[in-house]
Request: fold
Amino acid sequence: MVKNMTVVMATGTFDLLHPGHGLYLQQAKELGGKNSKLVVVVARDSTVHKKKRIPIVDENQRLEMIKYLKHVDEAYLGHEIDMFRIVEEIKPDIIAIGQDQDYDIEELKKSLKIRNISTDVKRVENYRIAELDSTCKIIKKIKSIEFEKSQFDNC
Reply:
C-alpha cells in the first residue's frame, strides 16, 4: 500500500452502466487526491429489489463490469443485511455519495459515529446531464420504443 494513501469508497447499483456512473467514480476518486484508492461497493440484487426495482443485470455481472472501469482499484459486493459491515472491513477515509443518491449526509455521519467508524462523507456534486444519464431513463426509453417483430430477429 502506498504511504499516505486515501481510501475512497463509492457505492451504487450500477445497473445498465452509463457515462454518469463513470463520472461519479472519477470524481469520487478525485475526492481522495493524488494518492487515492477507489473501492467500489456494488449493491446486492436483494438490496436493489428492496430499494429500487428488479435489477436488469445480476449482481455478479455488475461487479465484473465495475472492475473493468479505469478509476476503480477494487470492487466488492455489499452486504445484504448490514450496509455498514463492508465499511467496517474496508475502513475508507471518505465515502463518496453520488449526486443522485438519496442519502442525508448528516444522518449517515451520525450512523457511522454510532458504530465508531471514523470516515468522512462527501457528496459528488457534478453530474453529466444527458438524455440517458440514469438507468431509469434508459429503461423508460426502451419501454417507449415500439418494436416491430423483425427488429428482434438478430437479437
